[in-house]
Design a protein that fits this description.
This protein is of the alpha/beta class. It is built from 16 helices and eleven strands. It has two domains: 156 residues, Rossmann fold (3-Layer(aba) Sandwich), CATH 3.40.50; 141 residues, Rossmann fold, CATH 3.40.50.2000. Helix 2 packs across helix 16, helix 9 packs across helix 11 and helix 10 crosses helix 14.
C-alpha cells in the first residue's frame, strides 16, 4: 500500500519531526506495524494563492507513482488534494478547520467529496455533521518517548532553577489562538508570582519536550479553541499536573485525574486553579488514564480506515 501524506510545510526552518510531530509520529507508528510505504508532500505558501501555487507540482507527484490513497491533514491540504479524483482521499480535520465558523462551511463541503474523514474529537464529529463518512480517531501518544523522569534529574538536564515554580505554557507565546496574554494575566494574580517561571513550548525536540513536562510543576493551556491537543495527552503520559481551559476534548482526556483542573477564561479562576495544581505538589497518575491513546492502538484504527476505503478485507 502506497500512501501520500499532504500537509503544510510553512513553518520557519520547517522540520517535519518538530513542526508536524503528531503527523510524523502517526506515520512512523503505522509503518512499524503494517506494510505501508509513505511519501510526503509539504505545501509551501499560504492562503488560496499560496496553496494553488503547489497544484502543478502536486499533480506531477501523483502522476509519477501509483498511490493507493492520499491522506491529507487539515482543510487547505484537503482542498488541494481533492483537485484530482484519480486517487482516493482521506482528510483528517484537527480543529481550527471545523471550530472556526468561516472554515467550517468549507470543511463540511469538502467532507462530502472525500472517500472518508477523520476528526480528532467527538465535538468536531458533531460539528462536521457528516456521520456516515466520518470516524473519530485522536492522535496517539508515543508512550516510549513520553514517560516519567525524576523532576530533579529533568531540571538538571535542562538547567532549570530548583527553587522556582515552573509553569510550562502549552505552545509558543506568539501563537495568538493559544492565548498567552490570558496565561500571563492569570499569573499576575498570584502572590509571589516573581518566583514563578513560565516557559514556552517552541522549537523543542520531542526529547526536550518530554524533559520539560517532567521538570515543570504544571502545564498551562489557555487556548481560545482546540481540537484534541496533543500537548495535553503528552503531559498526561508524563504524569504532569495540568490547568486548562475547557476546549476541545481536554475535559474528556483528563477526566477526574487528581492534580488536573479545567478552568474558565476568567484570569482569577485560572490563578486559583494554578494554586491548586501547585498545592497538589506531586505527579499525577495521568499516564494510566491515557493508555487507550497509545500510538500503536491508534495506528490500527488508521490502518482499518485505509482498508475500508480501499475495500481490503
Amino acid at each position: 500500500m502506497k500512501v501520500l501524506i499532504v500537509c503544510s510545510g510553512n513553518a520557519p526552518n520547517f522540520d517535519f519531526k518538530i513542526n508536524q510531530s503528531f503527523i510524523y509520529e502517526q506515520i512512523e507508528s503505522v509503518k512499524s506495524l503494517y506494510n505501508i510505504h509513505y511519501d510526503t508532500f509539504f505545501i509551501s505558501g499560504k492562503g488560496v494563492k499560496g496553496y494553488l501555487f503547489n497544484l502543478s507540482k502536486f499533480r506531477a507527484v501523483i502522476a509519477k507513482k501509483n498511490y493507493s490513497l492520499i491522506h491529507a491533514h487539515n482543510l487547505p491540504s484537503g482542498i488541494l488534494s481533492r483537485l484530482q479524483f484519480k486517487v482516493p482521499l482521506i482528510v483528517t480535520f484537527h480543529g481550527s478547520d471545523i471550530n472556526l465558523k468561516y472554515h467550517r462551511k468549507f470543511s463540511r463541503l469538502l467532507s462530502r467529496i472525500t472517500s472518508h474523514n477523520i476528526v480528532v474529537s467527538k465535538r468536531l464529529f458533531n460539528l462536521l455533521n457528516n456521520p456516515n463518512k466520518t470516524t473519530v480517531i485522536p492522535c496517539g501518544i508515543d508512550t516510549n518517548l513520553f514517560h516519567s523522569v525524576d523532576v530533579i534529574q529533568a531540571r538538571k538536564s535542562i538547567k532549570l532553577d530548583n527553587n522556582k515554580k515552573i509553569i510550562l505554557f502549552a505552545s509558543a507565546f506568539g501563537n495568538k489562538i493559544k492565548n498567552f496574554a490570558l496565561a500571563e494575566n492569570a499569573v499576575r494574580h498570584l502572590n509571589g508570582f516573581e518566583e514563578i517561571q513560565i516557559l514556552e513550548l517552541k522549537g523543542k525536540t520531542r526529547e526536550e519536550v518530554n524533559l520539560l513536562m517532567n521538570a515543570a510543576d504544571m502545564l498551562l493551556l489557555t487556548s481560545f479553541s482546540e481540537g484534541s491537543p496533543q500537548v495535553i495527552k503528552e503531559a498526561m503520559a508524563c504524569n504532569c499536573p495540568i490547568v486548562a481551559t475547557d476546549v476541545g476534548d481536554i475535559k474528556e482526556v483528563i477526566g477526574n485525574t487528581a492534580g488536573c483542573f479545567i478552568t474558565s477564561f476568567d484570569p482569577v479562576d485560572i490563578a486559583n486553579k494554578i494554586k491548586l495544581a501547585i498545592k497538589f505538589g506531586k505527579r499525577t497518575n495521568g499516564r494510566e488514564k491515557v493508555k487507550h491513546l497509545d500510538d500503536k492502538l491508534i495506528a490500527k484504527k488508521i490502518f482499518d480506515i485505509y482498508k475500508e476505503v480501499l475495500e481490503i478485507k
